[in-house]
Design a protein that fits this description.
Elements (H helix, E strand, L loop, with lengths): L4 E5 L4 H15 L4 E5 L6 H5 L5 E4 L5 E3 L4 H10 L1
Parallel strand pairs: 1-2
Antiparallel strand pairs: 1-3, 3-4
Protein name: Glutaredoxin family protein
InterPro entries: Glutaredoxin-like (IPR008554), Thioredoxin-like_sf (IPR036249)
């Protein structure tokens, strides 16, 4: 099964760890999230270095910037 979302992060980012914790209840209920280091993306460092962590819906390419709450994630997923 393919992931639904990507969580764009960098190594040693404490906010990224916080975002993973907020996402965990969704993952436990079946949301598939691929964690992607922005350094591996062609546009990553330039586009995301000041915005991470970012939750990106794979199909719609919509993005939710940090900080986000469980309620905001739920609304984001319903719109995607």
């Amino acid at each position: 099964m393919s992931p639904h979302c990507q969580l764009l992060v960098t190594a040693a980012c404490h906010l990224c760890h916080d975002a993973e914790a907020v996402l965990m209840p969704f993952v436990e209920h079946g949301l598939l999230v691929e964690v992607v280091d922005i350094m591996t993306l062609e546009e990553g460092p330039e586009q995301y270095s000041l915005r991470i962590p970012v939750l990106r819906h794979i199909e719609s390419r919509r993005e939710l910037n940090w900080p986000f709450t469980c309620e905001q994630i739920a609304a984001f997923l319903m719109q995607s």
